[in-house]
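User: Structure please.
Assistant: Input sequence and predicted structure:
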Amino acid sequence: MSMMGKMRTGINTGGMQVVLVLIIVTFIFWGVGGDNETNSIVARVNGERITDTRLNAEMRFVRGTQGDTQTQDEFDQRRVRVLSDLMNREMMLQEADTQGITVSANEINQLTQEFPCTLIVSPVAALLGPDVSNESCTPWFTDEGGEFSQSMFDNVIVRFGLDKARWDKRMNDELMRSKLIDLVARTVQVTDQQVDDRFVEENTSLSLEWVYLNPADLAASMPVSTEELEARVSSPDVQAEYDAQLLERYTYEGQAEISIITMRAGVDNEEGLSDEEIETALNNVRDSLAEFTGEELALQFAAAAIMNSDDLSAGEGGSRGIRTEG
């Protein structure tokens, strides 16, 4: 029976309707920055966190399978798509777990040996067809004799930033999603009218007209009186927000990164220089650094510390780390 035939038969239960909605829902999420990993949360799905570390790992996997992007816009668009897919997959995995769906080790091994020729498609494609044949597909991890190659498998998944455990987890998740899709496809009922409506929706163009608004002109057209402004500023919620930000941003103790050059004087002077000679030498070093600023000053200071300083920090360019104001 075709996929569409499966959809037209089955049980039209409330539970399966909910599952279908969960699968084909379009997620709305906020912008995502670069690929610096801070393990910060970029999205939540029913309380389950998706971190930038997980997102970046998925980006590396996609890059391994699809190649690098050429422009920053292409990279940003891919990152948005990958995050959307992660959210979609997380929602489906949660529902699969609720439905009691499980995956065996044998199924994972079989999928690995046939990957990617065992068809795993998006939820909408799986539910709405058409059926796809993979007869001409060649599994990735097969040798010239057509047999599964463990060494080829190990080499390929490393390029994706994965090890065996992470690969098995990915295959487990894909099988869980695939089984959930099959469960929905076999139990949901779709009427002819719904199919017709979806066809019209997919094949209907939308015309949009854009209107440019100059922010300055827009602000000028909506004057705010002094009384209104003062009333807003003095409102409890604005004052509370101000106090919270003031406490967070502006009440910590001042800090600075310190570097020093030290020359021994008096009894500690191993070269027998007088205090005046030591002071003159220090002044000469200071004068030699006076013409530099910014990063160049930092480099020159470090070089001078290595050559002249008697402090233990000389080997580190005179750096003594970060110190508080006190």
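The longest helix spans residues 72-98.
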